[in-house]
Every structure is written in structure tokens, then in C-alpha cells.
Amino acid sequence: MTIKRSSFAVFLLFLGAMPLCAQFTQWRGFDSNWKNPRNWSDGVPNSSRETRISLGSPANSDVYVPAPDENNIATTDDFQVQSGGKVYFEPGAVLLVNGPCKLQNDASISLGDGKITFGKSVTFFYGGVFDAGTGTIYFKGETWDGKSGCEFFPGKSIVVVSGHSTPVLTGDWYFHDIKFSQEGSSATLAGNFFVKHKMVLEEGVTVTLASGNLTMGRSATLTLKEGSRLIIKGTFNNYGSVTGPGRIIVQPGEPALPVQLTSFTATRKDFTVRLVWSTQTETNNYGFEIERKAEDKRQITEWQKIGFVAGSGTSTAPRAYTYMDANLSSDRYAYRIKQIDNDGKFQYYGNAEVDVGLASREFKLESNYPNPFNPTTTIQFTLADDGRATLKVYNMIGQEVTTLFDGEGQAGRIQQVKFDASRLPSGLYFAKLESGKQQMMRKMMLVK
Predict the structure, then answer these.
(1) Handedness of CA 58, 40, 90, 195 (dihedral sign)
(2) DSSP class of residue 37?
(3) Distance CA 325, CA 166 (A)
(4) Which of 27, 237, 314, 399 is at 20 to 30 A from 222, Cα to Cα?
(5) Are 40 and 60 in contact (CB under 8 A)?
(6) Residues in a beta bridge with 33
(7) DSSP 3-state of 56
(8) Domain annotation covers residue 393
(9) 326, 356, 386 — which closes off a domain?
(10) Is residue 29 one of the residues assigned to a domain?
(11) Residue 325: which CATH number?
(12) Structural domain harbouring 46
């Protein structure tokens, strides 16, 4: 078939007059429902269409990403929240962003407890606000860039960095939890990063601090799993603890880490706690102060120094340390260690928690030990319910000799007291435990 030139020209003019298919769908904002097609210029976003959200006409800029409905998850290709746009996540909401994401000036995203996955680059511009709340952010792209003046509120969120490519995080960031996952992957940090609670490098992951600062807060834990590496080219400020068999590598020409702690554990036997920790390398290490605090909810306690273990100075070989904390009362305890350099600088590692004196919830008075005794012996008892209890000692003619315990007792914990009979004569004595309508008595023999 032959088409004449004049007819072909008319055909081209006709094509030129036809509207082209929209490459994006623009938020129009009649209400806040993401699923309502009327709110979008070209239908609800999907995985192959860009999304743009801004303060439009009518002036309803609030958009609510929905929770999954019958496996239908909100998706988009490129995702731009432009000036004035506000995006909120409903409880349990999920959004998959396959293309680049841009949070521009005066725009905001509030994640709540939702989840968002970034499949490509992420850029937060000056004036953009991202409130992470308690949500989860999955970053599988190549670059995550925070321009000066953007605001990222971490809340108690979790950031998961994964993918076989080399994601690069640049800018100044304050994270609650951040995890680098997927074996064989790597990530580069270039900027200033503060971790409040937890940073984890999964097995086989390499993370490089190319420039800037990485700071672990006082209650933060850095976990390096088998085969993982944290390469330090910038500055590493550790006020928390480091655990796991992975490695921290300081590149030549960079300041050396004073101490690389690889583990810190606390285990109990009866009323004694055994602390064990080890280091991979040490530089200028004077030693470790041991600190402890009780975690009993009925009272507020502070960290207290309970001991000191000398360090190994400078060592490139692994070192192991042990400390025994004996004669404890029944309670839950937290431990941490304060590593001190020879020049007085210090940093904290920890903390490990352990329960001491757990027992079944029953009313019971144990036999004292030793028995016979001279002049001291130990008595243990447990209660079935929380409440006031007394433990008193009587002589053979029923006279009260002393009160060993008079106060609020906690069920499910062993109460342990000492009986010092150094001022009493030899003979038979009775220990009597009372709580509510319950009572129990045990015989004790003092032999001098």
C-alpha cells in the first residue's frame, strides 16, 4: 500500500495533536485517600508510573499511604514529594518505591510504624523533613544523600541497608537502629553518623567509613558478625560497646582505636556473677573499671564502681579478662566496663544484664548452712506472693533474739540473709518466717 505525501503529512499532524501518555500521576488532593483515583491526575500510582505530590488545587496536600489490602501493596516508580506535600503512613502501611525518591524543600514524610523500601537513589533536599517514627526503612539503592538543612528524625526506627551493589550514605545522620545486611554486600559512609541504640553488620558485610565521623552513643551496641568488616578511614567515636567476631580495620595513616572489644558476657551461679570480656587489640590501655547497677523496678539506682582489672597496655594479640562479683542480693543487675587509657581518656562498653536469685513462687524457709555453725550462718527463703515478711530468731525458751528481715518481699526471688551469733551462747535456736497467714520454722545449732 502506498501513502501519498499529503496524506502522510496529515497523519503526522494528527499524531502531533494526540495527547501523549502521562509519564507520572500528580496528586490533586480532593481528600487524603491514596486509593481514590479521583485524587490523581492519571490514576492511582503503580510500579511503572512516577508519583508527584505537592501542595495543589484544591489545597489538600495530606496523603495517607494505606496498609496492604489483600496483598495489594502501594507502589510507585519515581517518588517526588515536592514543596508543601505531606505524606503520612496509616498504621501498618507499606510503600515500595522502585525508582529514585526525592523529598524536596518544605515537604515532609511521616512514617509512623509503617515500612518504606527505596529501590534506587534517595535525596533529601534542604528543608525536607522525614519523621521515621517507629517504622522500618529498607534501602536497596545506590546513593542516599542528605543535603545540608534537611531533617531526619529517627524516633525508634530501624534502617536496613542491603543489596549487592555498593550503597553510599552521605550527609549528617542520626539513627536509632541501623543494620547492614546481605552477605557479600558493602556500603560506604561519607559524612557524620550517630547511632543511638544499635548498629549491626551481618555476616560477610563490609562497611567503610570513608570520611567524617561514626559515633556510637553511650547505650549503643555495635555488633560485628562472622566475616564482617568495619573499615575506618574517618574518625570512630565509641561510647558504647562492640561485640562479635567481625573485624574493625583501621587503614594506614588513620588514628588507631585504643581498644577493640570483641565480647562481653555476664553469667551467674548462685549469688555470684562472672563477667568475661575479650579484646582483639589494645593501645595505651591502662585498664577496666567494673560498674554495676541494680535493675529492681521498685527503686532507681545509679552506676557504681565495684572493681578494677588492669589492662595489657599495647597489644596486637587477643586478650581475655574475668571478674567475679560475689555475695549479691536477689535482684536483676546490669554491668558495664569503663576502659581507661594511660592518659586518662576513657570509653564505656556494655551493658550485660543478669538475674540473680530467681526461684519458684512458693512460701519456703530453707535450712541454714552451715548447720551446726560458729558463729555465722546463711538463711534463704522464698515467698509465694509479693508482700510484707519477717524472719526472726528465737532461743529455746521462746525469747526473740534478733530480727533478720522485716520488709517487703518479692515473690519468685530468693531472699538471703546472714545470722551472726558471735554474742550468743551455744545452744539450739529457731528461725521463724512469717508472711500473711503463712509461717514456717527451722532449727539451728550454734556450737562454740
Answers:
(1) negative
(2) G
(3) 46
(4) 314
(5) no
(6) 64
(7) coil
(8) yes
(9) 356
(10) yes
(11) 2.60.40.10
(12) 23-257
Number of domains in the chain: 3
Can you point out the beta strands (E) in 67-167?
74-76, 79-81, 86-89, 94-97, 101-103, 108-110, 115-118, 122-124, 129-131, 136-139, 143-146, 151-153, 158-161
Is 425 found in the same domain as 350? no
Considering the domain architecture, whether residues 49 and 100 belong to the same structural domain is answered as yes
Q: How far apart are CA 35 and CA 121, in angstroms?
A: 25
Give the DSSP per-residue string, 91-110: TT-EEEE-S-EEE-TT-EEE
Residue 328 shares a structural domain with residue 401: no
Q: Which candidate, 334, 93, 96, 363, places its Cα nearest to that of 218? A: 334
The three grid cell numbers given for residue 216, joined into one nine-digit string? 556510637
What's the pTM value of the predicted model, to 2 decimals? 0.59
List the beta bridge partners of residue 304: 292
User: Would you give the end-to-end CA distance of the chain in angstroms?
Assistant: 126
Residue 346 sits in the same domain as residue 387: no
Residue 127 lies in a domain: yes
Which grid coordinates are listed for 345?
A: 581518656
**448 residues of the chain, pLDDT tens digit each:** 333 444 444 444 444 444 444 478 888 888 888 988 988 888 899 888 889 988 755 556 689 999 998 768 999 999 999 888 899 999 999 999 999 999 988 899 999 999 999 999 999 998 899 999 999 999 998 899 998 888 999 999 999 999 777 889 998 899 999 999 987 789 999 999 999 999 999 999 999 999 888 998 888 889 999 889 999 888 888 878 888 888 888 776 555 567 877 788 888 888 899 999 988 888 889 999 999 988 765 555 688 999 999 998 888 788 899 999 998 888 888 898 999 988 888 888 777 888 888 888 899 999 999 999 999 999 999 999 989 999 999 999 999 999 999 998 888 888 889 999 999 999 999 999 999 999 999 999 999 8
Determine the Cα–Cα distance for residues 317 and 153; give it in Å rounded to an integer.
41
Report helix, strand or coil for 320: strand
Closest CA to 364 of 271, 265, 439, 446: 439
SS3 390: strand
Largest CA distance in the chain: 131
Q: What is the CATH number of the domain that holds 375?
A: 2.60.40.2550
The answer to whether residue 13 sits within a structural domain is no
Last residue of a domain, one of 307, 322, 356: 356
User: Is the bond preceding residue 351 a cis peptide, omega within 30 degrees?
Assistant: yes
